[in-house]
Specification:
Elements (H helix, E strand, L loop, with lengths): L5 H14 L1 H4 L2 H5 L2 E8 L5 E3 H9 L8 E11 L2 E10 L2 E12 L2 E12 L1 H4 L3
Parallel strand pairs: 1-6
Antiparallel strand pairs: 1-2, 3-4, 4-5, 5-6
């Protein structure tokens, strides 16, 4: 179930910005959306911290287009939102889970996890 609160809307907006190729190639724009204690368990199985994910996303690589679907959000506390969604990047599909925290008046991505799944399931899952 998706809650329609300003907090959920802000987290969804932030998540969609993180998928924007312009943001993904800018350390400043990308980093501005990440909490100082950010951590990720990527769909590759790799564990990322804030510095390593900013470097990986912005150092010379051309990001592949990513589409997001089935975005759902729940506000868990006044300062915490949980989002779940599916991404597809040229048939590479993953279930995604993100936790956003209100920090100094801004919604920042605190934790993210991606779990890959088969392309045949991507269209129907």
């Amino acid at each position: 179930m998706t809650e329609h609160t300003p907090a959920v809307a802000a987290a969804v907006e932030g998540e969609l910005r993180l998928l924007d190729p312009t943001v993904r190639t800018s350390a400043e724009l990308f980093g501005a959306l990440l909490h100082p204690e950010f951590e990720e368990f990527g769909s590759s199985g790799r564990r990322w911290d804030r510095a390593s994910i900013i470097a990986a996303m912005t150092e010379g690589a051309t990001p592949r287009p990513i589409t997001a679907s089935r975005m759902r959000g729940v506000q868990l506390a006044p300062d915490v939102v949980h989002l779940t969604f599916v991404t597809d990047s040229h048939g590479v599909c993953a279930h995604r889970s993100s936790i956003w925290r209100l920090t100094e008046g801004r919604w920042l991505l605190y934790f993210h996890q991606g779990t890959p799944f088969g392309p045949a399931e991507c269209a129907t899952d």
